[in-house]
Amino acid sequence: MHCRSCHGADLRGTETGINLLRAESVLKDKAGESVLAVVRSGRNTPGMKPMPPMALPEEDVKAIAEYFHSVLATAQRQGGPPPGPRLQLNILVGDAAAGKAYFDSKCALCHSATGDLAGIGRRQNNPTQLQNSWLAGGNLGDRPVTATITPASGPKVTGRLSRIDDFSVVITLDDGATRYFRRDGESPRVEVNDPRDAHRNLLPQYTDKNIHDVTAYLVTLK
Ligand code: HEC
Ligand code: HEC
Predict the structure, then answer these.
(1) Are the C-beta atoms of 20 and 68 separated by less than 8 Å?
(2) Digit-coded pLDDT (tens) for 21-49
(3) Looking at the CA of 33, which ligand is closest?
């Protein structure tokens, strides 16, 4: 009754109103608050046709907003997968022998196929997850990032890193207590130890083929 003449029956807009399925104020709206603001004050963006302010009751506008959300919920997201059944991608397209050679030259420095990575293909039996995991250097949860802080006076403290920026660093100690330190340039000295740095530094070196080959090899480590 109030909106359709301009925004269209399917909300995709007309000559006189814009497409609401892509409108920021609809996408960010939670419970009508942002749609209400537009309806109450109207819109007059230079170069566009105006939307007049409308004095509708708040409850009505909220109901209209709920309707918008219900339509949006049925829409395919931009960049969404093609309609139809979900495609299972086979990521095992590499050459396991080439992967072993790569592993022996680049990874064996820190790992062993019969030691720490023995059975990795069994422990991580989903190849996609295995690939994500080895690229990242394992599970984030298991191995915390720690920081060691050396204050100007007093002993060094080490703990799990909770937060760090240019002005402060917060760590959590083994007993659960948190310690806060103000930072001023190099003082106090902060050393961050992230077990995944070794892997981050490797990321720029891999080609796609290296990645596929290594995954194909790791899968065989049952
Ligand atoms: C007379 C035509 C007209 C009517 C009626 C109308 N609109 Fe609009 N609406 C527009 C136009 C044109 C714009 C874009 C205006 C601009 O950006 O300056 C717009 C913009 C909006 C936006 C902002 C989108 C953004 O940019 O984030 C919302 C939300 C909206 N309308 C909701 C409604 C609702 C809800 C109703 C009914 C209660 C309604 N409109 C009725 C023409 C109309
Ligand atoms: C410079 C040392 C280093 C190199 C080189 C290295 N890694 Fe790692 N990798 C690590 C560290 C450190 C971890 C974190 C594990 C830990 O804390 O024990 C890790 C974790 C992993 C994990 C997760 C282990 C698990 O049990 O979840 C996999 C899998 C792995 N690396 C595979 C590889 C592969 C494949 C290569 C070669 C492409 C490689 N790594 C190269 C140091 C290295």
Answers:
(1) yes
(2) 999 999 999 999 999 999 999 999 998 89
(3) 1
